[in-house]
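Mods, move this if it's the wrong board.
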Amino acid sequence: MDSQEGIQVAVVIPVYNHGGALDYVLDQLAPYNLPCLLVDDGSDESCRRVIESATKVRDWVTSIRFSNNQGKGAAVTAGLMTLELQGGVTHVMQIDADGQHNLDDIPTFLKAVEKNPDALILGQAKYDETVPKARLYGRYITHAWVWIETLSFSVKDTMCGFRVYPLTLTNDVIRSSSLGRRMAFDTEVVVRLFWRDVRVINIPTLVHYPYDGVSHFSALTDNLYISAMHSRLFFKMLLSLPRLFVKFGLKGMGFVSRK
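Not the wrong board. Structure tokens:
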């Protein structure tokens, strides 16, 4: 997508054994004429063949690959850094590879980027009856932690993988922080961008969990990583409180939405 402001959006899709859904996702993405980078996070042979085929039959799709599974955060980071190195891209749209996102909402996301090129555009998940209840309740807990860590209600959903990053600002945050390499990345990068005064725009979007979808979220391991991440962010926020009081005053510390 080009605009008068020189905006160029590319797509990053982290892929780990999502061969069954990937062609469907790419077919849904095709009408929008966005270059797409698939980051193969150490997938098995069958998924690698799907990725190789996708890059051969679609000239707008390229790929990079990890030899071993590194985690979603590591895959997204590699995609962001690769696109920055290649040049020409100003914003990166992240999409999950399992087909859960409603890509009909892409035009709404792109319009938000055009109007707010310095903002972080976040999908705010609206779930149907297919959402696993344990995942839903876990998200509510993370939402509460994020409101504490940001001292704001401005960020509505940090766990939806459908979003658009301002590329340079995001990579600056990644380079200056030790962000998680697995599922916790999605939340941590949002909080740290917010701390950099990056405006957040929330866009409601339907999320559907396919009955045969592949989920790599580990209830034990990933929840431990997420808990550790929230602990780090919380204590960093506490250390920042004096500076925040000086910067925003009492009103600004009162959990108000950032306009």
